Input
Amino acid sequence: MWVSGMIFLICAQAPASSPILAPPAGCRARSRAPMVTDSVLAAVGTHDGATELVLTNTRIVFRFTEAGVRWMERDINRSIKEQGLGAWTADFVREGALRGIRGMEITFDVEGVREVRYADGALTLYTVGRSVDADEPDTRGKFVVEPVAGRDAERFIEEFIKLRARAEWSSRTSHETVRRTRAARDWRALTY
Output
């Protein structure tokens, strides 16, 4: 899995202000907090079980699984042994990298995701800020999770479509209620 080497490189060598550490456009990175109010509607994991994409009532969360963290820990330990780092430095690098990996989440608000597609083993999120007519090589506003199982991806997409439909209906209903309330208030003001 190519991600492990990249994350070790980032954690060990990149400065904190590095643009590499910034989350993709349309999302925000946050430490893992329990999803107390959000119920899981669907989840899709990569074939190796290292990462998962979880759909809740309000957000989509990408994160490492515990199996993924253990795999990364083995990979980091192997890299540390190969580089021959001293004990103190090795512990510092290992703990810093693993703390970041365990707590890493990339979170998308459901309203911020325009579309979800599945093709060739990849589940792709397109954010609202991405131009509809953007070229496929353009990665801005696009988040890809691969490889994933087709059945899990289809269920994820179905639940996403249902959730967006409910949110749009609720939003229209709320706007209509506000409009009617304002119209009634304005009418009462005119009659006095």
